Amino acid sequence: xxxxxxxxxxxxxxxxxxxxxxxxxxxxxxxxxxxxxxxxxxxxxxxxxxxxxxxxxxxxxxxxxxxx
Length: 68
Fold this sequence. Notes:
The protein is mainly alpha-helical. Helices cover 46% and strands 0% of the residues.
């Protein structure tokens, strides 16, 4: 892609981002997403330990097709 094309696209995107109607639309969408819970405020780091409890694995021979 030519350099002048990249510059033109960048200036167009910057001009659109500066438009008041676009800013108002993004603010409405952002507030709606917060109200509906799309932004989770939970911890970023998971707690230590296994995240999913698991059952112990039996190692006594092959699995039977018909469990007892």
